[in-house]
Fold these 4 entries.
Entry 1:
Amino acid sequence: MIRFEHVTKRFSDEDVSVEDINLSIHAGEFVSVVGHSGAGKTTLIRLLMGELKPSEGNIWFDDFDVDAIKRSQVPTYRRRIGVVFQDFRLLPKKTAFENVAFAMEAAGKSDDEIVSDVPHALELVGLSHKARAFPHEMSGGERQRLAIARAIINQPEVILADEPTGNLDPKSTFEIVEILKKINDLGTTVVLTTHNKGIIDALGKRVITLEHGKIIKDDKHGLHSMR
């Protein structure tokens, strides 16, 4: 489904963020990408989103060459991918319902589809009771759950979760991981970046370890994979 073929991204001669990455992720997998700050995790996510172009190599999404993407194709391509960020990136003046609905509106969905689908997404992440709440009225964990609802509402093939628990307490972290597992169980591919060893141990799924921009480990079951 996703293939990185000899991908290098350098921002300057001295600043090589990822180097010679070869990686395949199959449909339906749950893959964690781990490593210390500066290891290249976020660069990998931004390359897959098409936000950055590789300095060398190719990135494939099915038979789609991400590096060759035209500006006009970006919105269509990104609808295949849902993204969850550490800082939530919610619309502060819109309610929970409206934040999720906005993603559907941007994708050209009808009012009937919005009224039908948004409550289901909020229910999946345990926020039915917060539909009319604004982000500032919600806890950090609730805001991240809302961000996940927004990311899945258009039924993407892949969820990219970039350090989604970085600002959360242990209880909220566990809740977010459980929701991502549930989404994966429903058939969506999940790529999670994290530096939290507890998450990796709890998941017991595939873990790719980055160090100084290079893959140094690719473990099928991630227990005890981080040093």
Entry 2:
Amino acid sequence: MVEGVIFDMDGLMFDTEPLWTDAWYIVLPEFGIPEVPPALPDAMRGSSGETSYRIMRSFIGEDADAPAIWARMKEEVHKMLERGVVKKPGLDELLAFLAEHDVPMAIASSSPHTIIEMDLNNAGVRDFFTYIVSGEDVERAKPDPQVFQVAAERMGTEATKTLVLEDSLNGVRAGAAGSFITVMVPDMIAPTDEIRALYTRECKDLFEVRDLLAAGELDA
């Protein structure tokens, strides 16, 4: 069995990525940007901090007030999430399996702490996670592996014996860069040839992750 499991959150645990996409269409017009560049939502997935600002400006202009736009985005999504989140298939079953086998679990998400805590509490799964690392806690966003490295350090596990679960391309890049056992469970973006060469395994849902763990097929 792996020493620990690190979960991404949006798109992996909860069906929240469409909310972030919808928020762009609400927020950008407020800043005088009437059209949302079609590739912007996908490019922003899994990013945070200065990385997110650079990506945003590359799509909507170097003069854009990226920090203000991102703050407004988080505010809008927070309002949407107050109504609750939809769990991804197999989440409860995977969490129960890991808890039964005393495998430590951590969250490593680009979302702010306030949103992470709200989502976990609303979904009734907060108690499974002793460690939470947000994009606010690290200097370098995914695809840099820092957020996963911090989570593994807090759990006291070795990267090569720690499972990272991700749905985003940058998340897979980060897991691979940190030498983690990296499993992709695609959500809104399908893996590319580059990503297939990086991840350890692709699973259709979290039920499959649980079954592979039970069969010992994801051990280091």
Entry 3:
Amino acid sequence: MADGTAAALDHVVVNVLRGMDEAAAIFAALGFQLTPLGRHSLGSINHLMMTPGGYLELVGVPAEGKQRQEVLDSPFGLNGLVLKSDDADATYARLAAAGLDPSPPVAFSRPVEIDGRALEARFRTVRVPTARFPAGRVYFCEHLTPELVWRPEWLTHPNGFVRLDRIEVTSGEPQVDAAGYAAAAGVNMRVTRGGAAVALADDFAIDVVPGDRPRFATLGLSFDGLDAIAARAAATPGADWTGPGSDGTAILAIPSLDLTLACRSVR
């Protein structure tokens, strides 16, 4: 996101801590195509599930070696909402001017092998304090090498996954918290019957609803039809599939990851 323009979604993070192998096996069984295991210079590991827009990330820490304290200190499960930045310095200045107390940009990288070549994917991120967004981590990511992340061979999934649609956030003060997300994203919020909503520049929605505690509760995904993901969920131990209901939404729960996915068809 360039300074002064509305932000789009970059990615959403599921923190698996030291359970990366188990988490990756579940998502692979469900028909998501995972990128090869990445190792960040900060001391974290990841797999990505890419779409042409925002992507889903599994993040954790390795069993040995340097371990990223930010990941270890973050709650297990769905806990990261990451917005795009075209210029981390400009994003930092804008967030500071808005009174959101951002941390200065942090640069890091991870090795990537493309067509037998050893390359380096590089990033800069700007974080907003957890106290301002108690439901989960909110930060911005500038991709310095996007061509090493959005690769054509990683954009197609056997289960038909095509995009991320929304995240449902529970809050004791939905309108107050939604106003914070809107300020961070540089967009307006709207009051809804159930709470408040924020639509990012790419129509990804942050729906803030009443709840007993602040948390990222549900992630909405779209698929090119639900038959493939339903069949894979039925065959995957630890995956619970319900629906779809009258609104066309099916719920995929993965209790071992404390994760709830709301699945819809684009057809």
Entry 4:
Amino acid sequence: MNRSVKHLQAYTLVARDGELGSVEEMYFDDEKWTIRYIIANLEEVPDKEWAAVSPVSVEGVDWKNGTIMVDLSREDVAGSPELDLEEPMGREKERQLNRYYRIPVYWNGVGLWGNHVYPGLLAEESVAAEEDGSDRETRVHGTREAFGYTIEATDGEIGRVDDLVVEERTWEIQFLVIDTGNWLSGRKVIVDTHWIDQVNWQDGRVAVSLPRNAIRSATAI
């Protein structure tokens, strides 16, 4: 089932031994468009404000009560590497998080999670002594950063990103929710992320390989 990222950002992160705090943000990569980290505001943890937890550690989601349960203790999360939400998350910070939580890196392999579709399967693998050593540019971005980005069809602008839709088991972002503004009288439509050609993170623009008429007939919400 698909879920709204904005809806998930109102959830509470819960460890094995109690609440951690509210979900503030989610980070995703712009290569496979998959949520890589859940960022929590640790209201219930002394002396630490923010923490990042991978979906690999998620044990379950209570959709009725709005909680995300992780297979970690409050102490585990409290001791995790420090985050600066004002700075981009680079590959070295990702390595630090993976080493700390002792989970394999997600970018080694052809699947969404290593060679797997689901993050839980990656969790079952042993942590490799070496990984690809890649120092590529930052590819992880905040979901809130994407909200408001301009959508450009092949023949002109069509609106702005209003939300992201994520598949609840894989954590893959499958659709952009587009607020079409005055163009379609404020109607919102969804566009599959596989139609994204390029994202200009500096200018806040998303180019999709569809004409405006194709998006006009896209599924409305």
